[in-house]
Structures are given as C-alpha cells and as structure tokens.
C-alpha cells in the first residue's frame, strides 16, 4: 500500500459539506452545474466531473453532516469505489485530523482478500496523493499492519493453523531483524506451559508458544495474542452456528502481529516482545475434559468447567511467562468472550486497565487512530465468582452475568506487573463498511500505537 507521488496530473477530488455546495456551484463548479443536479453532498456521495472531450477532469465527494460523520467512521472512503483509476488529490476545507482520516481510510479501502480467487483481475484502483502535512510513512505502516491482521484472520483454518502462524511470524521477524523462539508439542510440558499443552494436545497440529523479540533500546513492551486457530469448543462442542466464524479465534494473535509490524516499520525506540500461544481446540481421545483440574505455569490450579473457555487458559500461561521478564507494559489481545459483543457490539474494542494514565493515553490514541475503544472495569467484587472452591480458579463460572469482566479478572490473576491492559476484541465486521469490508478487521492496534509515546515515555 502506498500513496501516489504529488504531480500536476493528479485529479482533484473536491470534498464538500452540504453547506459548501452552493458556493462551489457559484465558483469553481459553475461549469459543472448541470452535472451536479441532485447532488446533495451526502457522506461519500460522488459525482464525476467531465473535462474537454469528455475525459474525467475531477470529482466531487460529499462530506455529509457532522452527525453523519460521527455515525460512520471513514465515511469519505465510500467515495473511493466510485472513482476511476489514476492519481487523485484532496481539495476542500478539511482539518488535519479530517485529512488524516480520509488518507488512512483511502488506503484501507483498497484492501482485497483474493487468495482463493487467483483468476480475478480487479480494476485499477485510484491512488491518493498524501495530503500535505501528514506523516505518509506512519499512515502506510498502520494500513499495512492492518492488512496483515486482516489476511491472517480471513484465511481459513485449513491454511492457518499453529504451524502456519509460526511461518508468518518467522517471515515478519526476518523482515525486521527480530528473533523467534518456538516451544512446541511435548516440549511445552517440559518447559512448564501445561495449559497451552492441555488445550492443544488433541490436535494433530502441535500446540506451540511463539516468542518474538525485537529492539535493543528503550522500555519493554510485551504483546500477548490469543492464537486459537480454530475453536470447536472441544468436548463442550459448539453448535454449527457457533463454529462458523471460529477461524477468527486467532484474531488476538493476528492483531498483535499487525501491531508489531507497525512498531517495527516505524522503528520505535522500545524493546518489543510478542508471545502467541498457538493451538487448535479440537476433539480426540486425549482432549481436555470438563472438570479436569490443571496446574498452570504460575502454580495456580484451574478447574475446567467448560472446554470452550480455552482462550483464557492458553493466555494465562503466556501472561505468566511474560511477567517473568518484567515488561514496562503488558498487553493481551483476544477474541475472548461473546459477552463483550453483547455489551458493546462488533465495532468497539473493550479494554480493561487499572492505570488511569494509561487509559487516558489509549483514549487519545483511539481518537488519532480512528480506532474506537471502550474502557471496562476490573470489578473486584466479582473476584469470588471465579473461585470454584475445589481449585484456585474456575475457567467458566456459571454466574450468568459479566462474562467479559470475569474472564478479564481470570487473566489478571496471572499478571504481576504494574501496567497491564487486556483487550476483548471481535476481529470481524459483520457487513461492509467504508474501508472495512465484511470479514476480518483489526481492533485496538492503532489505538495502542498512538498510546505508546505517552504510555512508555517514548521520544517523539
């Protein structure tokens, strides 16, 4: 993904609010008045403008009302599909933030997942000249990181198992000079990752812990991503409707890999570590059973009351391992609970954080990255809910309420560093949206990227 080079040949895209339309018709658009009949400057509405000989000389795009823009993120990106190939430049009364949203949305609108349609020949896509004053490199890094995340989640489990995740992470590491260590199969038991092993042992595709490190200066940031490459629910088998999207259950891993790519591409001054417990939760004679009690890496015992609550088990061992290195900031990302979707829907990324300053940095990063997040509480009053009595912890309490909160509290039991953030993401867009086609989507990564300077004291 890239921007077009600035040139006189780039066609103008006049971005107009409804209240600016009359002045445009009287001025620069006077010659095109007939072509603008019925054009009301609704968000993403487009009219092509003819030049001599009928060639396209430019276009107008509606910017809609302030309310419309609040309701539809990247709304201007709707215009991209209506434009012919070639180079375009934005014209109009847009603030720096509005230009940034338009430019990032334009890049993201170019995403296609055509791996399984190799014969398809897409039409030439329109390219944008990066608006003046914006950091083109940062926008491209964000878009390319998002593309990696989307591609990983969109790929079906047959081609994206634990081994394939390892291959992708190794490729990413080679590109940026990072190092990867892998603990796989029975070695997980020998090296004390019992819960990762227990969840993944029934699959012929061996479970593993992927560990990538990059950077030699600055504060330590560790990202932990849930890599359940497919989730049948185990012996607590999901119904078919609940299994249909389970190729996306490695969305946490895909998102931290996309964020890691952004960080490394921008060469941020920090020491990055990425931990991905990569497993399949399937059925075989040696599968994890309901009421089994596991002893975790941290030593806490866990009663397995639902084999379909496996993500928190693999994350727990990875989080405990992450804390042994004492990172300055620890982040976990996972497609963890349906309760989070009930609470905030598919568009918001809920997160849990006890640090007010870090939460403020995330809110600011969400605004600048056009990546909405919502803070949820580590509500201590629910701690007793995750204590079954027969073991230290219950992986699936039958409480009936606050499922995302109790899952977050479970994970927090395995964390012993001061600064920790947990994201319970969805990783999927149910219907086509501007710059976000139906299917895989990254959530929280751009918010985190924007938060890092303030959260870790990085020099600008």
From TrEMBL:
Protein name (Swiss-Prot/TrEMBL): Leucyl aminopeptidase family protein
Xref: Gene3D superfamilies: Leucine Aminopeptidase, subunit E, domain 1, Zn peptidases
Cytosol aminopeptidase domain ranges (all copies): 148-448
Molecular function as annotated in GO: aminopeptidase activity
Record family assignment: Belongs to the peptidase M17 family.
Ranges annotated as spanning the membrane: none
Keywords (A to Z) from UniProt: Aminopeptidase, Hydrolase, Manganese, Protease
InterPro entries: Leucine_aapep/pepB, Macro_dom-like, Peptidase_M17_C, Peptidase_M17_N_1
Pfam family for this entry, one: Peptidase_M17
UniProt source species: Tabrizicola soli
Domain M17 aminopeptidase N-terminal: 11-124
């Amino acid at each position: 993904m890239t921007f077009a080079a600035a040139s006189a040949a780039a066609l103008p895209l006049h971005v107009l609010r409804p209240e600016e339309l009359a002045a445009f018709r009287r001025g620069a658009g006077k010659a095109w008045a007939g072509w603008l009949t019925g054009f009301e400057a609704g968000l993403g509405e487009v009219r092509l403008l003819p030049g001599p000989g009928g060639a396209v000389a430019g276009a107008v795009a509606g910017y809609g009302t302030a309310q419309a823009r609040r309701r539809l993120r990247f709304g201007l990106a709707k215009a991209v599909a209506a434009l012919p190939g070639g180079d375009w430049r934005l014209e109009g009364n847009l603030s720096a933030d509005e230009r940034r949203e338009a430019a990032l949305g334009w890049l993201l609108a170019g995403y296609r997942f055509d791996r399984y349609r190799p014969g398809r020949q897409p039409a030439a896509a329109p390219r944008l000249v990066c608006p003046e004053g914006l950091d083109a490199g940062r926008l491209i890094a964000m878009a390319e990181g998002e593309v990696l995340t989307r591609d990983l989640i969109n790929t079906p489990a047959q081609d994206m198992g634990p081994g394939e995740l390892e291959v992708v992470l190794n490729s990413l590491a080679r590109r940026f000079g990072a190092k990867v260590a892998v603990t796989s199969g029975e070695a997980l038991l020998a090296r004390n990752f019992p819960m990762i092993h227990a969840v993944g042992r029934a699959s012929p595709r061996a479970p593993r812990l992927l560990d990538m490190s990059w950077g030699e200066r600055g504060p330590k940031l560790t990202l932990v991503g849930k890599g359940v490459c497919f989730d049948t629910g185990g012996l607590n088998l999901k119904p078919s409707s609940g299994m249909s999207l389970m190729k996306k259950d490695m969305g946490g891993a895909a998102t931290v890999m996309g964020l890691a790519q952004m960080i490394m591409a921008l060469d941020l001054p920090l020491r990055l570590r990425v931990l991905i417990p990569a497993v399949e939760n399937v059925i075989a004679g040696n599968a994890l059973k309901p009421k089994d009690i596991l002893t975790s890496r941290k030593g806490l015992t866990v009663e397995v009351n639902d084999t379909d609550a496996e993500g928190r088990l693999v994350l727990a061992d990875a989080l405990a391992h992450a804390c042994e290195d004492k990172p300055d900031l620890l982040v976990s990302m996972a497609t963890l609970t349906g309760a989070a979707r009930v609470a905030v829907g598919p568009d918001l990324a809920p997160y849990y954080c006890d640090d007010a300053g870090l939460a403020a940095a995330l809110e600011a990063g969400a605004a600048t990255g056009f990546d909405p997040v919502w803070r949820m509480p580590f509500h201590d009053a629910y701690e007793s809910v995750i204590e079954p009595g027969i073991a230290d912890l219950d992986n699936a309490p039958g409480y009936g309420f606050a499922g995302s909160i109790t899952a977050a509290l479970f994970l927090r039991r395995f964390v012993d560093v001061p600064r920790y953030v947990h994201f319970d993401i969805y990783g999927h867009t149910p219907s086509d949206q501007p710059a976000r086609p139906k299917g895989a989507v990254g959530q929280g990564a751009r918010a985190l990227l924007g938060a890092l300077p303030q959260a870790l004291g990085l020099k600008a």
